[in-house]
Design goal:
Length: 71
């Protein structure tokens, strides 16, 4: 179960955030459409943070990484 999904631009500005709202188990529940306040963001590298709790695990797992937005 995903508890938190955040995306930051190269300046460290938060551009997307989804927190747990019941069972977020479908991709479109957390996906980022590449926009901030309705404006498509530039092609560049972004950083993500995902906090997920796996079945039978008492402590959530945090995963960080980078990806390139290409339109």
């Amino acid at each position: 179960r995903i508890e938190l999904f955040e995306v930051y631009n190269r300046y460290g500005q938060l551009v997307h955030r989804v927190t747990q709202k019941g069972e977020m188990n479908r991709f479109h529940d957390i996906a980022w459409d590449g926009k901030l306040k309705g404006k498509l963001q530039p092609n560049e590298n972004y950083t993500y943070v995902v906090i997920a709790r796996f079945f039978n695990e008492p402590v959530p797992t945090t995963q960080r990484g980078k990806f390139a937005l290409i339109k």
